[in-house]
Specification:
This protein is mainly alpha-helical. The chain has helices at 3-28, 34-48, 55-78.
Length: 101
């Protein structure tokens, strides 16, 4: 294997791992639309493997990833002004000797 091919393969594996990890995190939370998360993950996964896939698949990956990114960005933008009441860690009561039961 040539050094260039090895570098491309290593980069693709690292990028694919990050894409799948981020996509999984998006799917596990309820903060983003599920379909947008799937589009983002599937599209960018195809882009990570650009040098292994045929051109029509890569072009489709561009479109799918773009739609997913636009959808995710619009959901973040539409929720930007909303805040949820979340307890700050210093506001939580904790007693090491407390037993609930």
């Amino acid at each position: 294997m040539s050094p260039a091919r090895f570098a491309f393969l290593t980069t693709a594996i690292i990028a694919l791992t990050g894409t799948i990890a981020f996509g999984t995190a998006l799917l596990r939370t309820d903060s983003a639309p599920r379909i947008a998360s799937v589009l983002y993950t599937a599209g960018l996964s195809a882009l990570c493997l650009t040098f292994l896939l045929p051109a029509p698949v890569v072009r489709t990956g561009h479109i799918v990833a773009g739609v997913g990114m636009i959808w995710l960005a619009s959901s973040v933008w539409s929720n930007a002004g909303r805040t949820e009441s979340v307890a700050h860690p210093t506001q939580l009561s904790y007693s090491p000797h407390r037993v609930d039961g």
